[in-house]
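Tip: read the tokens left to right.
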């Protein structure tokens, strides 16, 4: 998988979903004026922007391992403390933030328990640690239609259902293993309407994430077969695509 893609390509691929999800996620995490918050795995800044709108740039920091995203976010929000770093090695002192949030990131952490433990470390005692991951295992991800078509055509394809946190109850288990307290969970859902099939399909071909990398690696006949099957599965345009995410909040 790769996230070494231009920020605008990722925004077209996932931003239409992650931006409205960020609002609901920040609400569930209890983000409010007067807090300082860290966005872990910020990408090009869907959640970071929501946090800045609520708290002001001086109260928000962000970390992201992908250089194109770091550059794009720095240009987009120059007054935010943006650093190139992974979740498993956060470049901040203990007890720095009132809240630490990770939107659509845990399933891509090299070591999710270590990443969540680091999030707790930099959060003040009693502060909030929150995370969300699409329900890939339950077929409720925005990517589920495309993955379904891929596995129908090639049953040996490995989709994202087995990634950490992408199945019911697993985020809670990871939080417990990381030593987090008072874990609460919910499901957050968003819906995006696409005006035509090409508007939906084209972002999948840019190489972002596991699905994008899979599609980019197909030869042209296989890619066309996948495209045709997706078109059969989707409703006539305009059509809605819904995404639901397992979501947790806990106390450091």
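Filled-in amino acids:
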């Amino acid at each position: 998988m790769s996230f070494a893609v231009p920020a605008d390509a990722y925004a077209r691929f996932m931003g239409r979903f992650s931006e409205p999800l960020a609002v609901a996620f920040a609400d569930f995490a209890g983000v409010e004026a007067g807090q300082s918050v860290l966005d872990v795995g910020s990408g090009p800044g869907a959640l970071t922007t929501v946090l800045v709108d609520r708290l002001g740039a001086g109260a928000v920091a962000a970390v992201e391992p992908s250089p194109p995203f770091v550059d794009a976010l720095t240009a987009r929000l120059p007054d935010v403390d943006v650093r190139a770093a992974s979740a498993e090695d956060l470049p901040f002192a203990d007890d720095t933030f009132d809240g630490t949030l990770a939107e659509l990131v845990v399933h891509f952490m090299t070591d999710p328990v270590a990443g969540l433990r680091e999030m707790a470390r930099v959060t003040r005692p009693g502060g909030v640690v929150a995370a969300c991951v699409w329900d890939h295992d339950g077929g409720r991800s925005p990517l589920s239609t495309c993955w379904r078509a891929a596995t129908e055509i090639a049953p040996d394809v490995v989709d994202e259902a087995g990634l950490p946190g992408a199945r019911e109850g697993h985020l809670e288990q990871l939080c417990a293993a990381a030593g987090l307290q008072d874990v609460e969970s919910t499901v957050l859902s968003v819906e995006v309407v696409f005006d035509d099939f090409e508007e939906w399909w084209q972002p999948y071909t840019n190489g972002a994430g596991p699905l994008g990398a899979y599609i980019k690696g197909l030869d042209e006949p296989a890619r066309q077969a996948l495209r045709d099957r997706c078109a059969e599965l989707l409703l006539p345009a305009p059509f809605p695509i819904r995404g639901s995410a397992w979501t947790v909040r806990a106390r450091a």
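The chain has one domain: 7-142+160-193+243-251. Strands lie at 37-40, 60-63, 81-83, 97-103, 123-134, 181-194, 239-251.
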